[in-house]
Every structure is written in C-alpha cells, then in structure tokens.
Amino acid sequence: MTRSDKDTIHKRTENRRLLQRMKTGLEVVKHTPYKGVLLGAYLVGAALVWLFRAYLFSLDSYGMFSPVLEAAINLLIPLYAVGGLLAFLAFLGTPRGNKAAKEGLQKVGLVNHAGEAPALIAKRQDGNNPRLTIWEFDPCGIPLGEWEDKRARIETALDITIAKMTWAEGRKLIRVYAVPAKSDFPALLPWKDKYLTPESFVLVLGESLTGAVTVNLANIPHILLGGSTGSGKSVLLKLLLMQSLRKGAEVYIADFKGGVDFPKVWHNKCRICFTEEDLLYTLGQLVTVLEYRKGRLAETECKDLDTYNEVTGENFHRIVFACDEVAEMLDKTGRSKESKEVLAQIENKLATLSRLGRAFGIHLILATQRPDANILPGQIKNNLDFRVCGRADNVLSQIILDNTNAADQIPKDARGRFITGDGTVFQAYMLDEKQL
Ligand SMILES: Nc1ncnc2c1ncn2[C@@H]1O[C@H](COP(=O)(O)OP(=O)(O)OP(=O)(O)O)[C@@H](O)[C@H]1O
C-alpha cells in the first residue's frame, strides 16, 4: 500500500468519524468515569423495569384498559429504553465543558459577525503526544488568523497553554493543541548525545509542547537566529554547529572578537576567521567550492549533494558557515572607503552562498541581536528560510519573523526559549561546550 493510499484511507475514516459526530452529536473521546457510572445505572434501571414489566402491568388484570391503551403502554417501555439510550449517548457525546468553553470564548471576544462563539465539538488526548489535549471547534466562520491574533485571550478563556492551532477536516474544524495552563516548559533542557538524529542532515534545536523541533538542512538550507542579548542565541548556534560537526560537516566561523565567543575547543575542529580580510578570503574559497560542485553535479546529472554522493560514491562534505553577529559584521557605518569595499565583497559572497548553497551542500547559520532593518541585505535575508527568534522587542521580532508580535510569546525572563517562523515555541537544548 502506498503512502498516498494510506493517506486517502485515513482521510476517509476521519471524514466518516466527523460526519457521524456531526449527525449524532457523538464524540469519539475517552468517556469520563462519572458518565460511565450514570450510563450503567440507567441500563440496570431499564433492565429491571423490563424484567418486572409483567408485574407492573398486572394492574390490567382486571381489564381496566382498552386493548389500544394496553398496546400503547406495552410499547412505552421499549420506547423509553431506546429513547433514553439515545439521549444518553448524545449526553456522552457532548464534551465536558462545552458550554463553559463557548461562554469563555464569547467573553474574550472570539465571535463571528452574528456574535456567536465557536462550538467545542470534541476534546481528546493526542494519540501521538499524550501530554497534549486536542480541542476541536466548529469555528463558526472565524478564520484561523483571528484565532492566532487572540491566542493569549483564548489561553486565558480555556485555562490552557496553546502549542499550535490548525485547520482540520478541510477547513471545517479548527484544532487547538494545548496543555493545561499550569504546565510549562522546563527552564533547562541539558543536551544529551542521544538526541542527535540519525538522518543526514537533520539538526535538533529543542523541545516544543508538541515534540522535538528539528530542521533538515537538505530541504531548508539556511538559518537566521535572532534575539536580544542574553536570549540564548550563541548557545543555540553552538548547538547546531556541534551537531553539524558530529555529522561530518566542515564548519567555518566568523569571530572578530579574537576567540572570546568561540574558545579554544572550537579552534581545533572548525576554521575560524578572526579578521574581515580572512573572512573575505574564506568566503571566496567557499564560492569556488560551490562552483566546482556545480560543475560536477551538472556533469553527473545529479540534482543535489546527497544524490551526487550516492551515485558517484564520493563524499562531498556539507559545509556550514556561521556568524554570531552578522548585522554587526556587515555594518558599514563609520567605515573607511577600503573597509566598505571589503564589506561589500563579503556581502556579495554571502548572497551567492545563500542563493545557490542548498543544492551544493553549503549552508549559512547567521545570528543577530540588532534591530536594524537595513543591516542584513534583503538578498541574503530572503534566502534564510528557517527563522528562529528568542526574547526580542517588536522591531527585532518583525525583522526575524516578519511578525511584530511573535516574540511576545517568549517570557521576558526566559533563556533559551525561542519561536520559529511557523509559530512553534520551544525550549532549546543547553549545550555545555565540554560536550563538544
Ligand atoms: N538553552 C538554554 N537553556 C537555558 N539557559 C540558557 C540556554 N541558552 C542560554 N542560556 C543562558 O543564557 C545565557 C546567555 O546565553 P547566550 O550567550 O547564548 O545569549 P546571547 O543571546 O547569545 O547573548 P549575547 O548576544 O549577549 O551573547 C547563558 O549564559 C545561559 O546561562
């Protein structure tokens, strides 16, 4: 069975379940124990009435009722049993807190033009991640964007912390994945080697409420990290570089602070550029490597580095270039004419690598804390597809994630807490450099 067959079957089953839920008001959820007790009591009661029906109708032994009335009374018990059972099933199917959820959402202003709040259709534990509860809503015409805008208010109304919100069932439902408001991220998640992924070239960043946050550089080649000072950018950058080294990549680093940011332990494993001239030379070499690989891939008709290595049996390593303060590095303010010329060339080479690096296994991981919109040229920034932002003001949040409010989700005192471009908040693993 192909994957698409499985997807189709899964979709059909989901559609059937949804249809059934909508028709009967039933919910495919774990029933709470008190509902089970009530159902049991009802069934026992109904069975007793049925067993003793002869006694109950002995009243008619004196022929007091007409045959029609007697038949009607005889029918009454099975009707009562079936009707009651249906009512019970409908009752079981209504998620607990349905009314409270609706009222809560109404109070925080998540309503459509008619003033209606979304209706909670189902609430269940996430099969893939038992920490999460999935709340399924009929959105009542309220678009997902509005839910995102009112995320904090929805959290207050439902007393939850939201991990993510998505459309489901072809935009018929909105699914809210959440944990109880009391639970939160751990303040510290020490890195362990067992977190290293076996897949080339998937790097792990940390843990969100829905699971590990990863990036596959084979698909999304470059990363932009942002965050104000002390937010944890450098630690996260080093975490990614450490994994790149472990996976056999060549790592190049620009560090103009004379090795303050990258102590000795890194010098043995990476090529560090301490000056602008050195950096320009190194980037020039990387562009030459890129051109060479381009020629080899064209000759062998391979679409990317992995295919080339597989087909030829060669082992072109992935190359990662990193800079912890790229905006500072490229800032031309107050520079001499010659220095500006060197920076322009550096910028130019970075732009080439960012544009063409993916297919040839050359990746950029750039970090910045500066909220200056124009420092990072658009032709570089636009190619840095995987964006991550830590604690930041609205300006930096806008620069990194193109969303002024995204970084508001990071508490001001959080360290190593980040949000990705798709709105996933995560706690980054804390790397101890001794683990390098
Ligand atoms: N993942 C993490 N988990 C917990 N604490 C962290 C994490 N990352 C960083 N920290 C804490 O935050 C401090 C600052 O981290 P880091 O130096 O990476 O910040 P930064 O954003 O690079 O700041 P700056 O730009 O000023 O160097 C670290 O010394 C550490 O105590």
Automatic annotation (TrEMBL):
Under the heading CDD domains, the entry gives: TrwB_TraG_TraD_VirD4
- Where in the numbering of this chain does the FtsK domain appear? 210-399
Per UniProt, the keywords (alphabetical) are:
ATP-binding, Membrane, Nucleotide-binding, Transmembrane, Transmembrane helix
- Write out the transmembrane intervals: 37-59, 71-92
Q: Where does ATP bind?
A: G227, S228, T229, G230, S231, G232, K233, S234
Does the keyword Cell division feature in the UniProt annotation?
Answer: no
InterPro entries according to UniProt = FtsK/SpoIIIE/SftA, FtsK_dom, P-loop_NTPase
Name the chain's protein. FtsK domain-containing protein
